[in-house]
């Protein structure tokens, strides 16, 4: 089919979604009233994450005060044991899952597009979907208080304490389901941030010119994508054990309680660094502003952040030093644990070197940065102590660890976060927070914090274990606990004063104007508060500190600044999308307008999860189907791809390109990364049980060989069919491509059927290994079902004429997905075949 | 760092470290868990080979990149990973059994 | 050893790793002291750096990052790693030399203790007696959820995991009573799961074992009525008292209960009053325990039972 003149070609269906007759400003306006909740733009979603996260912080903080109040005197009866256990469980859970990660993700969602020169995140609906999942997951978890079934097994949910036998109530179910749901949100946000950072930057912003914060967030997002899956799998397996009786962790049937600990800490240890990285990124962003010089050693910091992203995955078992692992293993993890001090040290010294560059201004955020250095360095040093096994065996699960982890998390995350609130508040509200109150907030928090937690090191060395609701009098813990509790009240007073200041500043804070701190990064380009579209025209960036080095950005009114994509061609929201490495524009990305689809997709899932808790399985299934339907509608919308548009700076760029570097492809690759991590967690579980409980591995019935070979063949053929569909789509053979998509779907179904046939003789109820085999095949089956839906979806689009010439993204991305799925199916079939060949019953 | 190859050079040592770590962990698990698949001799030899190989591969990307902006950072990140590989691998030689 | 000693309840430092009375704890304390001093010195130096950087605008130097961030940590960490691996191997080694084995099994929320499980297999509970200066192999198991065996004054902790058998070696270097406590969160009464480790001279230990082997002594008077109550009320379904009712293992062995310094797994001083209170009101004193409260026992019966139990030493 001949390509018509791109300039005159009407946008395919894009006009339907576009809002013709509206001005640029109107198109980008945030909807008002009830419809505000349909907003998907990063400013709205980011604020929602931040506000919700802060609410959870306050709730979890109150819980912490309850804990401290209970421990103020020995033998206290303020809370009974059951309540106390619920309180400390929820304190940890809320802080780790519903406060730290989401609020940092919220800051990233809010800041990244502004810093990188984008009008919005590149997948705004995914961000909105993530937010709703997070909110609903949080509500499910919190609702356990209403049913008097709050989880009380600790935020680490060790089994068998969390099994049906020892926790017959619904507490663990609330925890597992609520948290898994909220984790889906974190993973969705992470994949979205990866795509946003790699694909939507200002023209000319290569990776080396990226603000350091974006590097931190990029690694943060990758770590979430790889680090959360082990816990998601662990939680699903535990819930399946509770619900269906599959014996994954049941020692009586060849399971192992330590498998849960491995999966939990495979997530749990990187989690600490996941929390630390964005906060350190905030420090690395604020610090240069107040020093007035660029971050010293940018390259070193980037290298340190990357190496931290890797090395922090090799430490998980240092939470398991006392579980009786062989000394050789302990030593491996001890060695790996100490190594993580190096990238940490590089960052700290890089911050110190930056301080020496020029006379720093002692503002409120600067107070928090100094507080961060003080507290975090101390926490890091006690962390090194804990990497020493003999010391760890004494300190583990004692108040020493409580002290250490609060030094690392409050010092490494909460202090930078409060600094960030003071620093970026003008961006949210257009007004400055109080410099006077801010100092009070800081000093209250700093004194209260150190009084509370410094003493706990000693309490722990004097033998006080964690998680005890009462303690006996006179053995040396009384006075220390009293002082810690008093300290916690001072800390709380600081937080309360912060809330007061925040509410106050929205009314009476001085107007911020333009770039109130004299910062260097693009989020300060406009007079505050920022317009919802961030940029009238997206400026070219030549420097890492554009506002300092590029006078053309600061010498005129913000809306006059030169750049690409001024105005709008098709009454659509759009932003520029770049080559992931060089930052050169390669396409114009069309962005969604306000829509309810993410809300309803998440709502369907919420119904599914909620009904699962109440054991209404049919409602659960209905919710899931509803959600899938909404996703299909979401994906069905007419594509804008295939047209060319001028970018306003002399280039003509395609809209929504089908290419390896395009954002949709990057997000599919990111998704595959998550899926690989999920799959690898299952494989780890299987190999682990096979290795650690060999007797039961021998008892496990072997899968059938022939169907496994068939499955492998079908998986390979599926990858080939997907690839052919991609090629034909790119050469505009729409019908033929559709047929190949259909074939891909068929082969995906065939792969699953063959795998299912192979494991029919294996019982999931007799041994834990058999259960893991079933879980792994089920996982591949679910992914195959997605491939089936996707292939049929593409076929339907191609047949109904929804696909227009030049549009190939749907087939392009399916091919990549099919290859990834084939890899997982092959690995599964291969391992099962190896298992089948090793004989057995 | 403008080119893909330089990015690869920055990420490659980390990947080498990750693979090395997983393999060492697998070796130790194979020797020390219930099944006792392999003996300590195998752990020694395989660990040594893996560690030497790991160090070489972690430092290899230094040859890949010439961009001045990357080289210094790369030098140190390869160095850090190489040191981490040595730390994760060499200690095995201190042990005669899984227990000491 | 049959005399009831004072328990460690209310004794300052009875559970403190900073006052070691065992080889493992002493070695760990050495490391702790060295690392605390070293860590404090590093902290002061880093903070001094911050202060200097703040006061004098010398400009950043790359060697700070490389020296402070890479070289210095690597050197310190290598030293620390070698030292702590050495300590670890010294502490954890020597299992083969241990002449005596004590098997401790964790239950919600008490400890089942068996001396020399391969040979004599004498059962006791909630108190671990061992000879001073002799390495003792401690075998750790769990019957229900994960617990952790920790006597900070003697050695570091080791978990008790269902389906697994963990082993550790402990050597007490001083005679005395040391408080231990479950260190892994194990449910409702996790804070009330303590015990005492009693280190005695080796000849005392031999005497203790011989003593323990025997059956519970016969008694006369009101205490004899207590024995009848014990059997009538069904206590023997869970508790064994050698020579009276044997075999039950759901609850702690009571053959020597009156000789223990503390009641309820190291939580309350042992006397007839607290024994009576305990029997009548277990669920209030220790929520979630598997034993029901025997509030329905009549006052005289309860007193007799407490008196009889108190006499079992």
Automatic annotation (TrEMBL), chain A:
CDD domains: Ubiquinol_Oxidase_I (cd01662). Pathway: Energy metabolism; oxidative phosphorylation. GO terms for cellular component: plasma membrane. It catalyses: 4 Fe(II)-[cytochrome c] + O2 + 8 H(+)(in) = 4 Fe(III)-[cytochrome c] + 2 H2O + 4 H(+)(out). Residues 22-542 form the Cytochrome oxidase subunit I profile domain. Pfam families: COX1 (PF00115). It is found in: Cell membrane. Residues 1-23 are annotated as: Disordered. The chain crosses the membrane at residues 49-73, 93-116, 128-147, 174-200, 212-238, 258-283, 295-318, 330-356, 368-393, 405-425, 437-460, 480-500, 595-612, 618-636, 666-692, 704-725, 737-760, 772-793, 814-837. Coiled coil: none annotated. Keywords: Cell membrane, Copper, Electron transport, Heme, Iron, Membrane, Metal-binding, Oxidoreductase, Respiratory chain, Translocase, Transmembrane, Transmembrane helix, Transport. It is a multi-pass membrane protein. It comes from the Bacteria. Its EC number is 7.1.1.9. InterPro entries: Cyt_c_oxase-like_su1_dom (IPR023616), Cyt_c_oxase-like_su1_sf (IPR036927), Cyt_C_Oxase_1 (IPR000883), Cyt_c_Oxase_su1_BS (IPR023615), Cyt_c_oxidase_su1_bac (IPR014241). GO terms for biological process: electron transport coupled proton transport; oxidative phosphorylation; respiratory electron transport chain. The keyword Cell membrane applies. GO terms for molecular function: cytochrome-c oxidase activity; heme binding; metal ion binding; oxidoreductase activity. NCBIfam families: CtaD_CoxA (TIGR02891). Belongs to the heme-copper respiratory oxidase family. This is cytochrome-c oxidase.
TrEMBL record, chain B:
The chain crosses the membrane at residues 7-31, 37-62, 74-95. Keywords: Membrane, Transmembrane, Transmembrane helix. This is Uncharacterized protein. It comes from Histidinibacterium lentulum.
TrEMBL record, chain C:
Subunits I and II form the functional core of the enzyme complex. Electrons originating in cytochrome c are transferred via heme a and Cu(A) to the binuclear center formed by heme a3 and Cu(B). It catalyses: 4 Fe(II)-[cytochrome c] + O2 + 8 H(+)(in) = 4 Fe(III)-[cytochrome c] + 2 H2O + 4 H(+)(out). Residues 221-313 form the Cytochrome c domain. PROSITE patterns: COX2, COX2_CUA, CYTC. Coiled coil: none annotated. One of its GO terms (biological process) is ATP synthesis coupled electron transport. It is found in: Membrane. Belongs to the cytochrome c oxidase subunit 2 family. Residues 97-211 form the Cytochrome oxidase subunit II copper A binding domain. Keywords: Copper, Electron transport, Heme, Iron, Membrane, Metal-binding, Oxidoreductase, Respiratory chain, Transmembrane, Transmembrane helix, Transport. This is Cytochrome aa3 subunit 2. GO terms for molecular function: copper ion binding; cytochrome-c oxidase activity; heme binding; oxidoreductase activity. The chain crosses the membrane at residues 34-54, 63-83. GO terms for cellular component: membrane. Its main location: membrane. The gene is coxB.
């Amino acid at each position: 089919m001949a390509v018509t003149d791109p300039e005159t070609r009407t946008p395919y269906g894009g006009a339907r979604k576009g809002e013709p007759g509206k001005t640029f400003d109107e198109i980008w306006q945030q909807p008002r009233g009830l419809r505000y909740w349909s907003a998907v733009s990063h400013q709205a979603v980011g604020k929602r994450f931040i506000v919700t996260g802060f609410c959870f912080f306050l709730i979890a903080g109150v819980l912490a005060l309850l804990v401290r109040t209970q421990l103020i005197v020995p033998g206290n009866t303020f809370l009974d044991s059951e309540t106390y256990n619920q309180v400390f469980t929820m304190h940890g859970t809320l802080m780790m899952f519903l406060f730290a990660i989401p609020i940092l993700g919220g800051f990233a969602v809010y800041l990244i597009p502004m810093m990188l020169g984008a009008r919005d995140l590149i997948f705004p609906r995914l961000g909105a979907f993530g937010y709703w999942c997070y909110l609903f997951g949080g509500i499910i978890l919190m609702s356990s208080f209403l049913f008097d079934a709050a989880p009380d097994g600790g935020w680490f949910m060790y089994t068998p304490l969390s099994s049906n036998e020892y926790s017959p109530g619904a507490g663990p179910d609330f925890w597992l389901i609520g948290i898994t749901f909220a984790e889906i949100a974190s993973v969705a946000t992470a994949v979205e941030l990866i795509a946003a950072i790699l694909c939507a930057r200002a023209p000319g912003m290569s990776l080396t010119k990226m603000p350091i914060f974006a590097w931190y967030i990029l690694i943060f997002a990758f770590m979430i994508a790889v680090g959360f899956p082990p816990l998601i799998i662990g939680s699903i397996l535990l819930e399946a054990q509770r619900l269906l009786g599959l014996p994954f962790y049941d020692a009586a049937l060849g399971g192992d309680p330590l498998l849960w600990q491995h999966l939990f800490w495979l997530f749990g240890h990187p989690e600490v660094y996941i929390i630390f990285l964005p906060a350190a990124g905030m420090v690395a962003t604020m610090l240069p502003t107040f020093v007035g010089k660029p971050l010293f050693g940018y390259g070193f910091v980037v290298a340190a952040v990357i190496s931290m992203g890797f090395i922090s995955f090799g430490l998980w078992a240092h939470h398991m030093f006392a579980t009786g692992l062989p000394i050789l293993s302990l030593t491996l993890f001890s060695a790996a644990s100490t190594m993580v001090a190096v990238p940490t040290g590089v960052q700290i010294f890089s911050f110190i070197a930056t301080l020496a560059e020029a006379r720093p201004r002692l503002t409120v955020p600067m107070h928090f940065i100094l507080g961060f250095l003080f507290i975090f360095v101390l926490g890091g040093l006690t962390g090194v102590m804990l990497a020493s096994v003999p010391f760890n065996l004494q300190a583990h699960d004692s108040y020493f660890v409580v002290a250490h982890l609060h030094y690392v998390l409050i010092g490494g995350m909460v202090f930078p976060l409060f600094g960030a609130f003071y620093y970026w508040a003008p961006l949210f509200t257009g007004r400055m927070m109080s410099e006077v109150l801010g100092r009070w907030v800081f000093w209250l928090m700093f004194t209260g914090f150190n009084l509370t937690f410094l003493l706990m090191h000693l309490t722990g060395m004097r033998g006080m274990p964690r998680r005890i609701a009462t303690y006996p009098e006179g053995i040396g813990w009384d006075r220390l606990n009293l002082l810690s509790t008093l300290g916690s009240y001072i800390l709380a007073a600081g937080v309360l004063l912060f809330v007061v200041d925040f509410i106050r500043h929205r009314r009476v804070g001085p107007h911020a104007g333009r770039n109130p701190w004299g910062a260097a990064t693009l989020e300060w380009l406009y007079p505050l508060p920022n317009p919802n579209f961030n940029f009238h025209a997206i400026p070219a960036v030549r420097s890492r500190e554009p506002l300092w080095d590029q006078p053309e950005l600061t010498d005129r009114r913000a809306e006059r600044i030169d750049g690409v994509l001024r105005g709008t061609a098709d009454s659509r929201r759009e932003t520029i999308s770049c080559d992931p490495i060089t930052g050169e524009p390669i396409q114009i990305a069309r962005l969604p307008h306000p829509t309810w689809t993410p809300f309803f997709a998440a709502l369907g899932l919420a119904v599914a999860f909620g009904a699962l808790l109440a054991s209404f399985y049919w409602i659960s299934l209905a919710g899931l189907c509803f959600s899938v339907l909404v996703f299909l509608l979401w994906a069905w919308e007419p594509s804008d791809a295939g047209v060319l548009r001028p970018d306003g700076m002399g280039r003509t760029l395609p809209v929504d390109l089908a290419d390896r570097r395009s954002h949709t492809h990057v997000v599919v690759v990111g998704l595959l990364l998550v899926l690989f991590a999920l799959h690898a967690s299952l494989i780890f579980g299987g190999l682990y049980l096979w290795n650690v409980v060999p007797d039961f591995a021998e008892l496990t019935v072997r899968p059938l060989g022939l169907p496994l070979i068939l499955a492998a063949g079908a998986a390979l053929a599926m990858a080939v069919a997907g690839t052919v569909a991609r090629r034909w789509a790119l050469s505009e053979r729409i019908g033929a491509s559709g047929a190949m998509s259909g074939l891909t779907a068929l082969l995906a179904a065939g792969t699953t059927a063959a795998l299912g046939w192979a494991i029919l003789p294996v019982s999931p109820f007799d041994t834990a290994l058999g259960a893991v085999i079933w879980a792994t095949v089920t996982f591949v089956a679910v992914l195959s079902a997605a491939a089936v839906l996707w292939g049929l979806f593409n076929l339907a689009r191609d047949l109904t004429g929804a696909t227009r010439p030049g549009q190939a993204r749907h087939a392009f991305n399916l091919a990549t997905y099919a290859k990834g799925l084939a890899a997982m199916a092959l690995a599964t079939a291969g391992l099962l075949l190896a298992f089948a060949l090793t004989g057995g019953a | 760092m403008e080119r893909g190859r330089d990015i690869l050079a920055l990420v490659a040592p980390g990947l080498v470290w990750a693979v090395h770590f997983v393999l060492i962990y697998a070796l130790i698990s194979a020797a020390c868990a219930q099944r006792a698949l392999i003996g300590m001799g195998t752990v020694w030899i395989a660990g040594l080979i893996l560690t030497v190989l790991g160090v070489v591969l972690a430092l290899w990307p230094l040859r890949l990149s010439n961009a001045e902006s990357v080289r210094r950072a790369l030098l140190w990140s390869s160095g850090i990973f190489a040191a981490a590989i040595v730390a994760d691998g060499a200690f095995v030689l201190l042990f005669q059994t899984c227990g000491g | 050893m049959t005399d009831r000693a004072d328990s460690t309840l209310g004794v300052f430092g009875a559970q403190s790793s900073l006052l070691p009375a065992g080889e493992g704890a002493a070695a760990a304390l050495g490391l702790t002291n060295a690392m605390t001093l070293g860590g404090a010195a590093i902290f002061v130096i880093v903070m001094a750096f911050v202060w200097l950087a703040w006061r004098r605008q010398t400009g950043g130097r790359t060697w700070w990052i490389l020296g402070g961030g890479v070289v210095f940590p690597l050197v310190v960490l290598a030293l620390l790693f070698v030292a702590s691996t050495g300590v670890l191997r010294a502490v954890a080694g020597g299992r083969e030399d241990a002449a005596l084995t004590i098997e401790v099994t964790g239950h919600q929320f008490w400890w089942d203790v068996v001396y020399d499980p391969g040979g004599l297999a004498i059962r006791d509970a909630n108190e671990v007696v061992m000879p001073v200066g002799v390495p003792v192999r401690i075998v750790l198991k769990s019957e229900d959820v994960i617990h952790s065996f920790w006597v900070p004054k003697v050695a570091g902790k080791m978990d008790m995991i269902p389906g697994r058998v963990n082993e550790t070696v402990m050597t007490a270097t001083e005679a005395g009573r040391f408080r231990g406590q479950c260190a892994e969160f194990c449910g409702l009464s996790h804070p009330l799961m303590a015990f005492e480790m009693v280190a005695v001279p080796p000849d005392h230990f031999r005497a203790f074992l011989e003593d323990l082997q025997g059956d519970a002594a016969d008694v006369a008077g009101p205490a004899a009525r207590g024995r009848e109550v014990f059997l009538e009320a069904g206590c023997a379904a869970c508790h064994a008292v050698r020579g009276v009712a044997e075999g039950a293992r759901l609850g702690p062995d009571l053959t020597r209960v009156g000789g223990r310094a503390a009641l309820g797994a190291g939580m309350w001083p042992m006397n007839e009053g607290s024994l009576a209170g305990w029997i009548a009101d277990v669920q209030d004193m220790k929520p979630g325990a598997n034993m029901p409260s025997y509030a329905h026992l009549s006052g005289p019966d309860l007193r007799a039972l407490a008196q009889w139990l108190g006499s079992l030493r």
